[in-house]
Automatic annotation (TrEMBL), chain A:
SMART domains: FeoA (SM00899). InterPro entries: Fe-transptr_FeoA-like, FeoA, FeoA_core_dom, Transcriptional_repressor_C. It comes from Desulfuromusa kysingii. The keyword Iron applies. Keywords: Iron. The keyword Iron applies. This is Ferrous iron transport protein A. One of its GO terms (molecular function) is transition metal ion binding.
TrEMBL record, chain B:
Signal peptide: none annotated. One of its GO terms (cellular component) is plasma membrane. The chain crosses the membrane at residues 308-333, 339-356, 368-388, 408-434, 446-472, 478-498, 540-560, 674-697, 704-726. Probable transporter of a GTP-driven Fe(2+) uptake system. This is Ferrous iron transport protein B. GTP binds at residues 22-29, 47-51, 68-71, 128-131. Belongs to the TRAFAC class TrmE-Era-EngA-EngB-Septin-like GTPase superfamily. FeoB GTPase (TC 9.A.8) family. Residues 15-177 form the FeoB-type G domain. It comes from Desulfuromusa kysingii. The keyword Cell inner membrane applies.
Amino acid sequence: MLKSLRQMATGEKAKIMTVNAVGEIGRRLRDMGLSPGTEIEILGRAPLKDPVSIRLKNYTLTLRNSEADFITVEGLEN
Amino acid sequence: MTTAEAFWKLEAKPKTIIALAGNPNSGKTTLFNAITGARQHVGNYPGITVERKEGTINLKNTHVKLIDLPGTYSLSAYSQEELVARNFLIDEKPDIVVDIVDATMLERHLYLAIQFFELGIPVVLALNMMDDAKKQGLRINRKKLSELLNCPVVETVARNGQGKKELIDVAIKQAQLKNKIWAPLDISYGTDIDLALDEMEEIIQAEDFMTVRYPARWIALKYLENDQEIITLGGQFTDISKRLTEIVEQTKEHCLKTLNIPPEAIIADYRYGLINSILKQNIIIQEKPQQERIQMTTRLDRFLVNRYFGPVLMIAILYGMFQITFSVGAIPMGWLENLFAWISQTATLLIPAGYLQSLVVSGIIDGVGGVLGFVPLIAIMFLMISFLEDSGYMARVAYMLDRILRIFGLHGYSAMPFIISGGIAGGCAVPGVMATRTLRSPKEKLATLLTAPFMPCGAKLPVFMLLVAAFFSEHQPLMMFSITLFAWIMALLVAKFVRSTVIRGKSTPFIMELPPYRLPTLRGIFIHTWERTWQYIKKAGTVILAVSILLWAAMTFPLLPQQQVSQFEMERNVALNTLSDSLERQETLTAINNREGQASLQHSLAGQVGTALEPVSKWAGFDWRTNIALVGGFAAKEVIVSTFGTAYSLGDIDPEAADTLSSRIASDSSWNKFTALAMIVFVLLYAPCVVTVVAMAKESSWRWAFFATIFNTMLGFGMAVSIYQIGTRLFA
């Protein structure tokens, strides 16, 4: 089932399907390794539920929910 | 002769220029320091927003110039750092690029390497952090990786210098082999993109379009990637650039229609595809099963950035730093105080009484000494901040505070400049303002650097301690804490104000890596601390020295008219002749001397300025003596307490021995609790010191630096007046 990265729960694993951002944000997201096919896991969220921290490609990345909205994922079985 | 000139003057031996590049946190600078040795020949070259460091090493048969480029994730010109790195490679054509990659995150780090291959510059790959990789049970088949990437691969551990010799040897050999010839790698980005690239490359070749500077296919690639820097440069050749843009538009339309992805995304996808196809050929061998892998960072983060526990711990850590700075810092500060007292005494003995003695002792030694006295405090604070930075914790602070800071038009990256400026009391706004360089958006950066000087820096603290001791002695810790809290509130509110008026604009994305926790190296921390402390010391030797002399002159000249001087002389003679009791005589003489001191001060230029300001400043309860101190404080906040001492005719008041001065002020009829509060708030908020203003101008523009000077002073005065007026009317 497809959903946005924002909707993922802590500890959930998923595979990136699309990154819909263009321009600067899109470039930055791709530079940081957020490309289709990449597996990610939600590590947690900051005190006010934003930004979110995720694990991918053996490192930790944080981004705001507004950036997470550009990324659609498909849930993975744990 | 500068290092660079010296380097070029060296004869006979061949010279090799090696550029160190890599992602942030790849251990680049650690490796740079390990190779160049204990800071030898390291020069700082401040750029627009980033610095690049150079070092030289002298080998048996070649001289090597090493350039440490700023850390970048990509060459996409997203940030200033990336642009600086890219333009350096293109314009100065180093013999070889050493791309430092973190062996534990090969997949992401190779993204930059691929872009070097696209550019065609000769590359050597340094697989750094091999110790971490081993700990995680990872083994990397470097021979095979080297074959597939078609470039030498060397394993290194920057922290202990392992592999650095081999790395340099291989780099020099490869540089000689390639002999400055660039060979861009042709990567396939899928049929659509490839066809467009072919067509564009042909045009670029035929027209010699910017080919002096860039490889032809690379220009085409950047056009397809919508790289604003290259497109803007190409715009000068309108006709060719129009043809290229046409092809780009067609390709884009086609890609969006068939795949619903813009070309730039397709290009990135193919780069990652290439990386994956390489890594899939058993490059990374997982020796231990997955479960045994030490994921210290993720485990630590479960606590350190926990939604509930994280903020509590953050406050505890910041408070702990505050405590350590002051308790440990007090010891060497005492030594320095004694040292300056001794120098002062010696100077008094050696130089005959008169202007020269007065200038040297009260002007130079007291002024500069007062500032240098804070060096231990500053050094300890920077030591701890460097530790937090190098350990990776600062990134977590930015992550946890981003949401709150965003409410006020700031950014997660604003947290660090605030903390360095004194956000936990005792920092310095000069390095704080410089730390705003990490902010990418000019508007958020501006809002941060305009408000960071509100923080209670190390130089404002003595003023607060003095006034709190005098009027709120029963609530000292609480008052100091409230002052810090108030500073944060004001900084956030003013940031919100400027971000919704003069520097309105959307917030920029927050996409930040949380680097793995690492125990910082001692050398790294000391270099960091020393660089920052040295800037502070330099300030004392230059700006503060000049200001001290000026202030001394302003508080000394013009001299009291001869008539008044003889008046006081007469009074002294009367006292000497009439009073027989020696104690009483001494007291009367001191009183006369004090009155004479007061009179000459009031008559001096500074006194006249202070008196002239009194009609306005009295609204906040400040008399002419306070005005002198506050005007002096614009030069350097350290000056406030010492000027206060002189202005209150106590002779040479030691800024640290605030007790005597504080009791004097407490009993002075012109002072009350509200005057003290008004003064605290004013000192906290008014114009940043001159050095900070210069730093602000450097980081933004003189216009904004002036804006801050005027705006902050008006804001501080407005607050001070309201506190004094409301306080004295309602509660007195």
